[in-house]
Amino acid sequence: MVALKLNFVFLGNKENNLSGEIGKYCRLVSPENFDAGILEEAKGIAGVLGESGSDRIEELLLRTRFDPATCHIPFFLWGREWKVMNSRFWPRITGDVNCIFWNEEKFKKWCLERESDSGSGEEKAEWNSFAELLMWLIRSGKSCGTLNFRSSRGTEGVIGLEGETVLFCRARNLEGPEAFFDMMSWARGEFLFEPMEPGSATEVNIGRSFFDLYREYGLMLDECRHVFEFIKSLQDRLELAPDNCALDDKADRYFKGYEYICRLIDQGKSVDEILATAPLSAIRSLAYIYRLICFGDVSSVHHPRKDDGKEDVNLASCAIRFAKKHNVLVVDDAPFFQKVLKRILERDNRLVVAGTAKDGIDCLEKLEESDPDVITLDIEMPRLDGLGALKRIMLRKPRPVVVLSAFTGETSRLTYEAFKFGAVDVIEKPRSYSAADLEQKEREILERVARTACVQVEQLTYVRKRRTNNTRRNGSDIDSGLLFVNYFGEGSFSQFLKALSYGNWEDPAGRTIFILPLTRHALKHMYQYMIEDHSLPMEILPDEGEVEVRTRGVYLLGTDWLPDIEIKDDRISFRPGGRYNDVGEFIEAIAAKAIESGSYRPVVSAVSGLAHVANSFVRVAGMGGSLFYLNPKRCLFPDLAQSLRKAGVGYEVDTIEEMVQIWANPESYVNRPSTLVDGQAQ
């Protein structure tokens, strides 16, 4: 054997020591001593999965593979079968696993091929994956042309290259970036490279840098890396829960592909068959399957039959018990902040810290042990981040969650995402750990966590397909004489986002105004996120000029800008200049003018809020307006609802979904008396 001058890096520990001849040309590097500089001259990287320290090895290999400076270096992985099948280096998805069991002769041959190829200028005789072939072409400067590839599974694809730019790609029934992402999961096969002159390509359906695309592919791979906690084999078959599966909004560009995957699951197709036939790349399909499992829409995973003929059935959702009151689970990857927050929370006799967790995976495991009543959740964490953990919690066994992160300002996309996925409250973490900073935040944190602990949260269902019973029968029965004024007070933005997804806002039952617990500045940012998610026919009322309210118009207002309103005959318009002491006076003025006009009947709803505006709502009911409010137990600030219940006015609604049903089909509700006896509508 020729000495290869340590041009191959072997990631492992002492117990993985190299034997005999292999140790002469492979450099053993422990994960603790790994440095990117070690790879400067490396012709290849070898690693063991399933042994001591293999989790760290997997992280280092992934980092290497998705770094443009090192992504061209080929991998040789092996290990115990169960570990390989549960790693992110899934053969069908990444094309990176070469050997499930250790094979010393195969490893020697692999090293010699790569050593002899380096600097020879000749094309390699054997490739472990399409990704390795493509990387080599780009790095060797031979990447101006068309690469035709046929994988070992018989799948064919073609990709056009010009330097580092991917011009076009077609594979299976896919085109563009999805075809590229699909081909990145292909294993070895046959290829034909046809050179072409720069600028002569006649087809462009991508036109992006290879490294940008590869990084995007890496993000998707990272998104679904934990799917193999539930799926043991690509031959597994999934079973959907009886309810509608968690399809994204139809505005999602991949909606039809997701819908097709659900049909394949219903037909009893295996995961491998789904990845091979779905009209999406294998990696995106797998990410969606993982989302279904996380959202609780996969009720079970059926594994291939064992030798005894019995089928192994694994319930994909965790059994999370209901929590005891005021027990807090603190989830944060910073040990110092864990200690600080624990010390703060234990100063309040309403709260008991039942446990701590260092990341999302740890959080899900600690749920069983600590049985919390409320969870404080950081966002940026390793393994599984806060949003990923939040989705699982809220879709399986809902718990009140306070997101506490340094990245959640009032206009942050992360703040929107946290509310979207069911957080009751979001607190911006102190940006420093100084005594003054913490003292300033301490009282706020204690009060908001204690309030959140008392909220009854619903299972997260707003991401599902809109229910038909929330859709009006047809547009002809719309009562244009109804004016909806929906007040979402303090602590209710997450409830508003649920209402968005429950309702059919292209066909409202009348003119609708939403008053939200946001400043106008924050509302403008959140509005952009809402439009991206839902393609909603809503608009923010401008702060300049007069605006006439359309018949089916839906309008959004922040609480710091309440305009003047004019109702004349059947015309409603807003204009700057409104002078109101609080939002209660504003709503009362709208109701009074609507009734005075004789053309409209106000339908007023209240979701969370403070007690000082309750008298205005009571007066609206006294005028003859219809009044609805959400169950106080569902509100972060229940004071308003409790005051209305005590006053014996209005109709109490138990859930946001029921509230949206009232807005969609108000005929059977608006004529009910606005009175209550012992909390029950009469």
Question: What does this protein look like?
Answer:
Pfam families: Response_reg. Keywords: Phosphoprotein. This is Response regulator receiver domain-containing protein. It comes from Thermodesulforhabdus norvegica. InterPro entries: CheY-like_superfamily (IPR011006), Sig_transdc_resp-reg_receiver (IPR001789). With 682 residues, the protein is an alpha/beta fold. The protein has four domains: 122 residues, Rossmann fold; 91 residues; 127 residues, 3-Layer(aba) Sandwich (Rossmann fold), CATH 3.40.50; 211 residues, Rossmann fold, CATH 3.40.50.180. Helices cover 34% and strands 20% of the residues. The chain contains 22 helices and 30 strands. It has a seven-stranded parallel beta sheet, with helices on both faces. Strands 5, 6, 7, 8, 9 and 10 form a six-stranded antiparallel beta sheet that branches. A five-stranded parallel beta sheet has the order 15-14-16-17-18, sandwiched between helices. Strand 19, helix 17 and strand 20 form a beta-alpha-beta unit. Helix 19 runs parallel beside helix 20. The longest helix has 19 residues. The protein is elongated, with a radius of gyration of 30 Å. The termini are far apart. The C terminus is likely disordered.
What is the strand and helix layout of this fold?
Blueprint: E1 8-11, H1 22-25, E2 26-29, E3 44-49, H2 54-65, E4 75-79, H3 81-85, H4 91-94, H5 104-117, H6 130-139, E5 144-151, E6 156-162, E7 165-171, E8 174-175, H7 177-183, E9 189-195, E10 208-209, H8 210-223, E11 237-240, H9 255-266, H10 271-277, H11 282-294, E12 298-302, E13 313-314, E14 327-331, H12 335-345, E15 352-357, H13 360-370, E16 374-377, H14 386-396, E17 401-405, H15 413-420, E18 425-428, H16 435-453, E19 482-488, H17 493-502, E20 511-516, H18 520-534, E21 539-540, E22 547-548, E23 554-558, E24 564-568, E25 571-575, H19 583-597, E26 601-607, H20 614-623, E27 626-630, H21 639-647, E28 651-653, H22 656-664, E29 676-677, E30 680-681
